[in-house]
Design brief:
Blueprint: H1 2-25, H2 33-36, H3 50-79
Helix pairs in contact: 1-3
């Protein structure tokens, strides 16, 4: 059980870092903090290319893996017997 918990903690750490990087790679939609850093000059708000759609898909899959690892670690912590 300890090996599984350690593996889930490693997965959680890696997915957390990758998720942060992927979110920062997304294009700013304007009207928020992205305007402050020069992201407010986008010409087409609703259009996104193939790369942006793939980035969205990869971010969603990684977020699901992050969520599943959090839930699994919570269940292991709650039901572990000392």
């Amino acid at each position: 059980m300890e090996i599984l918990e350690f593996a889930l903690q490693v997965v959680l750490g890696i997915t957390s870092l990758l998720l942060t990087l992927l979110i920062l790679l997304h294009k700013g939609r304007g009207g928020g903090l992205s305007d402050m850093f020069g992201g407010g000059m986008s010409s087409a708000m609703g259009s996104s290319g193939l790369a942006e759609r793939n980035l969205n898909r990869f971010t969603i899959v990684l977020a699901l893996g992050w969520f599943i690892s959090i839930v699994a670690l919570g269940l292991i912590t709650k039901f572990s017997v000392l």
